[in-house]
């Protein structure tokens, strides 16, 4: 074997060994750079997905900006290595699909081995298409956290939370007797805000019913948005009202007032009796007073902003 090298000198074999070592190092370096570039591609794609940016931002902005920064800080040789990172539009899309599939596989793997609870709801995307949204909560491991070290518990006033016998408060106090329970400040404020005259309560209930009628159905929401566009409205949708976020009430009513004509026309088209309310001058007057005089949204938008509360 290799008889042609029998009479070669020792220096020949040392030189060949050195060449082989250099080739091995070059190959390892090439594989390492390729692996690092692939990892960088996934990390950048993940950030693009989290920020909800278009996929082509990777090759049009992120990569050129990174090259400029590295070149300015460390030199051209280091900047050239960044050019190996694949961030083309379609590549980023594939990376995001891979990440999504991997996260789903991880979640399924965990759920197979632990107890879990699930919550589902219907939602609509930006195009008003209906989707089923599922939230899952699961206990994967115990962290050996001592309940005795818990000094405070804050919940809403629901019986399941604040009940003295079977509520969460009672269960926690069995483990931590000295714990102090407090009622959530936002929920207390929401309860206080309910103290309105019966007339205002009735009007707001009617407004909320109309909003829910339009927005709960993706089809009706789409048709209402199209009607607003045809009427050159500034807005194309109503706002949901959440009782806990009681300071949003003024914004909800203001939007209803700004789209009162569109709401009336839409309800007429669907033969809804409440349409006449939005053409009633007395009703509209009370709505205006409710939004502008009662709630003062410009002063109470943020309950934590001391500069806005006067």
Q: Average pLDDT across residues?
A: 77
Q: Into which percentage range does the β-strand content fall?
A: 5-15%
How many strands, what sense, and barrel or not for the largest sheet? 2 strands, antiparallel
Q: Which spans have pLDDT < 50 for at least 5 consecutive residues? A: 29-33, 297-310
Structural class per helix/strand content?
Answer: mainly alpha
Shape: extended
Strand order of the largest sheet: 1-2
Q: What share of the residues lie within helices?
A: 55-70%
Q: State the distance separating the first and last CA atoms.
A: 96 Å
| Total number of domains | 3
The number of helical runs is 13
Count of β-strands: 4
Q: Helices and strands, in N-to-C order?
A: HHHHEEEHHEHHHHHHH
The gyration radius over C-alpha positions equals: 32 Å
Assembly type: single chain
InterPro entries: RNaseH-like_sf
Organism: Octopus sinensis
Protein name: Protein FAM200A-like
Fold and architecture overview:
The protein has a two-stranded antiparallel ribbon with strand order 1-2. A two-stranded parallel sheet has the order 3-4. The protein has three domains: 28-107, no CATH class; 147-183, no CATH class; 194-300, no CATH class. Helices cover 58% and strands 8% of the residues. The radius of gyration is 32 Å and the shape is extended. With 310 residues, the chain is mainly alpha-helical. The chain has 13 helices and four strands. This is Protein FAM200A-like.
Looking at this protein, list some descriptive labels.
310 residues; mainly alpha; 3 domains; two-stranded antiparallel ribbon; 4 strands; disordered C terminus
């Amino acid at each position: 074997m290799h008889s042609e090298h029998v009479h070669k000198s020792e220096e020949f074999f040392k030189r060949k060994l050195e060449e082989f070592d250099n080739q091995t190092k070059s190959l390892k370096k090439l594989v390492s750079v390729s692996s690092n570039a692939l990892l960088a591609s996934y990390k950048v794609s993940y950030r693009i997905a989290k920020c909800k940016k278009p996929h082509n931002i990777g090759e049009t902005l992120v990569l050129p900006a990174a090259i400029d920064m590295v070149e300015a800080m460390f030199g051209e040789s280091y900047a050239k290595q960044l050019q190996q990172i694949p961030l083309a539009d379609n590549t980023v899309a594939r990376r995001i699909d891979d990440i999504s599939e991997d996260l789903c596989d991880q979640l399924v793997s965990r759920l197979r081995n632990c107890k879990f609870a699930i919550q589902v709801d219907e939602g609509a995307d930006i195009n008003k298409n209906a989707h089923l949204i599922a939230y899952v909560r699961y206990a994967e491991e115990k962290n050996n956290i001592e309940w005795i070290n818990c000094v405070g518990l804050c919940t809403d006033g629901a019986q399941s939370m604040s009940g003295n016998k079977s509520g969460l408060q009672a269960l926690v106090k069995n483990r931590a007797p000295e714990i102090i329970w407090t009622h959530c400040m936002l929920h207390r404020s929401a309860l206080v805000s309910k103290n309105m005259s019966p007339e205002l309560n009735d009007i707001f209930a009617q407004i909320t019913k109309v909003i829910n009628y339009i927005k709960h159905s993706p089809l009706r929401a789409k048709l209402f948005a199209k009607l607003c566009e045809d009427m050159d409205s500034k807005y194309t949708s109503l706002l949901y009202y959440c009782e806990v976020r009681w300071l949003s009430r003024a914004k909800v009513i203001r939007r209803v007032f700004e789209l009162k004509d569109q709401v009336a026309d839409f309800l007429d088209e669907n033969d809804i009796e409440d349409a006449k309310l939005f053409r009633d001058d007395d009703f509209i007057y009370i709505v205006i007073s409710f939004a502008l005089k009662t709630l003062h949204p410009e002063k109470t938008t943020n309950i934590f902003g001391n500069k806005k509360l006067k």
